[in-house]
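Field log, afternoon session.

UNIT: design team B
ACTIVITY: writing a sequence onto a fixed backbone
BACKBONE:
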C-alpha cells in the first residue's frame, strides 16, 4: 500500500456531484431540488459548505439538461462553480477534478485537497467538517466521515424469490461510509483515471483510492448526517435542520 503525500494541505475545495435524478424518491423533480423549509436540499447542502471558513470554494456538477439550478441562490455565487455532470457519480466527480486541474495555478495543484460531499446530505455539521480537516492535516493522508455499525448485520441468501438469513456478520470492524470524503486533488484525479482504465466498480471516492493503493482514514461523524434517499427521509432531515 502506497501512502499519499504527507504534506500540510494549503487549501480545501468542496466538490458536490448533483447531476443525479434520485429515482427512489419517486418525485416530480430530482431529489436535490425537493424543498425543506422553503429551500432546496441542494441549497441547504451548499449553504453548509459555503459558510465554512476552511473551504475556499465549491465546484458543483450539474446535469447539462438541468432546469432547476438556475433558480438556486448559488447559481451565480462567486464561490460556486458549475460544471457539467456525467452519467455516473464518479464521472461527475472526475469532471469537477478535471476542471480544477485546468483552472488552478500549477503551483497549487499538489497542495490542494478536495472534499467530495453528497448533494443529498444537507444535515452536515461544521464540526464534522472541522474534524475531517483536522485529521487529514495531522495525518497527511485522505479520510472519510463514517459511523461505526451499531446494528446486528445479517448476510442474506435468496431462494425462490425469498430472502433468508445466511449468517450473521461480525460488526466489530464495519463502518458506514458517509461524506465528505477528503483527498489530495491530484491523488483522487489519478485514482479515478486508473479506475476508469481498469473498468473498476467505483462506489465512492474512497473505493477509488483503495484501488490506487492509498490510505483512507476513518473519522467518526455524526449520525445526523443522513443521506436523503427515500421519501420518509425528508421529514427527518427537516427536524434536524430546524433543530440547529
Amino acid at each position: 500500500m502506497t501512502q499519499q503525500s504527507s504534506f500540510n494541505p494549503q487549501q480545501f475545495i468542496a466538490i458536490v456531484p448533483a447531476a443525479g435524478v434520485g429515482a427512489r424518491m419517486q418525485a416530480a423533480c430530482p431529489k436535490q431540488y425537493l424543498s425543506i423549509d422553503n429551500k432546496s436540499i441542494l441549497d441547504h447542502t451548499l449553504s453548509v459548505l459555503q459558510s465554512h471558513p476552511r473551504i475556499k470554494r465549491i465546484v458543483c456538477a450539474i446535469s447539462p439538461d438541468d432546469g432547476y439550478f438556475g433558480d438556486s441562490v448559488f447559481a451565480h455565487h462567486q464561490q460556486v462553480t458549475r460544471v457539467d455532470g456525467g452519467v455516473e457519480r464518479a464521472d461527475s466527480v472526475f469532471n469537477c477534478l478535471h476542471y480544477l486541474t485546468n483552472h488552478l495555478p500549477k503551483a497549487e495543484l499538489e497542495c490542494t485537497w478536495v472534499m467530495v460531499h453528497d448533494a443529498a446530505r444537507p444535515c452536515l455539521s461544521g464540526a464534522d467538517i472541522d474534524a475531517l480537516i483536522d485529521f487529514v492535516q495531522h495525518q497527511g493522508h485522505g479520510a472519510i466521515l463514517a459511523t461505526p455499525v451499531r446494528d446486528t448485520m445479517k448476510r442474506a441468501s435468496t431462494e425462490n424469490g425469498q430472502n433468508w438469513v445466511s449468517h450473521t456478520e461480525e460488526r466489530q470492524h464495519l463502518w458506514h461510509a458517509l461524506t465528505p470524503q477528503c483527498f489530495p486533488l491530484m491523488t483522487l484525479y489519478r485514482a479515478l483515471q486508473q479506475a476508469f482504465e481498469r473498468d473498476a466498480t467505483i462506489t465512492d471516492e474512497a473505493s477509488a483510492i483503495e484501488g490506487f493503493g492509498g490510505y483512507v482514514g476513518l473519522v467518526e461523524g455524526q449520525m445526523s448526517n443522513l443521506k436523503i434517499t427515500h421519501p420518509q427521509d425528508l421529514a427527518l432531515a427537516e427536524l434536524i435542520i430546524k433543530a440547529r
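LOG NOTE: The first helix runs from residue 41 to 50.
NEXT ACTIVITY: expression trials, pending approval
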